[in-house]
Specification:
- With about 180 residues, the protein is an all-alpha fold.
- The protein has a domain of about 110 residues.
- The longest helix has 15 residues.
- The chain contains ten helices and no strands.
- The N and C termini lie far apart (about 65 Å).
Amino acid sequence: MKESQSALKIENLDHLGIVAGIIDEIGLVEEVNKIVGIRKKETLSPGQVMKAMILNGLGFLSAPLYLFENFFVGKATEHLIGEGVLPEHLNDDRLGRGLDKYHRAGITKIFTAVSLKATHIFQVEMKSVHIDGSSMSVEGEYETKEKSSERIEGEEQEVEAEMKAIEIVHGYSRDTHT
């Protein structure tokens, strides 16, 4: 009896088993691998790395990336992520390479493909689809309460005459930090 108890290995799934099951049902790993591509010598595919990041993100912990693999110690990584996957495979170098690949393939492209696949699998009815790829910026001076209270009746008509419709033009994003 003692021999069988010493061979027993206990691993934790918590709520991550449900999340991993939904990820598998959506086919996220396969979809990401199809878009990003797989290299034969990789221990983990880009889709498996993304699955690990999602599981970690929903693990209710906040830790630096260099401690990423520690999150999976004691968890059933082979069951959650894939056959042969060990916590030491999920290091910060692997994450960095995965993030680089997602960026090169196009984050919006990956997100759109996975989202549309999920809506199809779960039969989500959609009347329209909207993806906003623009950024908005505003220039000019806002009118303060002090300025508006100083206005006299005659000036109010001038302000209304100056009001005009917003003009949408092509340009460059002011949201970047350069």
